[in-house]
Design brief:
The protein is α+β, with helices and mostly antiparallel strands. The chain has a single domain (2-113), classed as Heat Shock Protein 90 (2-Layer Sandwich). Helices cover 40% and strands 28% of the residues. It is built from four helices and four strands; from the N terminus they run H-E-E-H-H-H-E-E. Strands 1-2-4-3 form a four-stranded antiparallel β-sheet, covered by helices on one side. Helix 1 packs antiparallel against helix 4 (85-91) and helix 2 (51-61) runs parallel beside helix 4. The longest helix is centred in the first third of the chain and has 20 residues, at 2-21. The chain is globular and about 35 Å long.
């Protein structure tokens, strides 16, 4: 269970940090267990993700799983690490969904199979 706790905490920390960086004043975090899946949802009223960046956000949230992380870190060598948080969340989850409206906030839901 400690791995699961740290795993969940890391994901929530990153998603909440994204909300704070988006100037959110209201952040709702919901964590639940359904069958064998942990579902984490973070919804905020921040600045939202511009439409032209939604595909990129979805791609980052659906990165390869953690066992493929070494390859990803190799790609990061020499790059600015700002904005890689969603990619890291994506590597720690099995599935992710993102909904956002510019100026209307963002909702990110991630699923972790048990």
């Amino acid at each position: 269970m400690p791995y699961r706790y740290n795993h969940i905490r890391g994901i929530v920390d990153e998603l909440v940090n994204n909300s704070v960086r988006a100037n959110a004043t209201d952040i709702d975090v919901n964590i639940r267990l359904k069958d064998d899946t942990i579902i984490i949802r973070v919804k905020d009223n921040g600045k939202g993700i511009p439409e032209h960046r939604m595909e990129e956000a979805q791609k980052k949230l659906n990165q390869p799983r953690r066992h493929e992380i070494e390859e990803y870190y190799g790609e990061l060598a020499g790059q600015n690490l700002i904005g890689t948080g969603l990619s890291l969340v994506g590597m720690m989850t099995d599935k992710a969904e993102v909904k956002s409206k510019p100026g209307g906030g963002t909702e990110i839901t991630v699923y972790i199979k048990g």
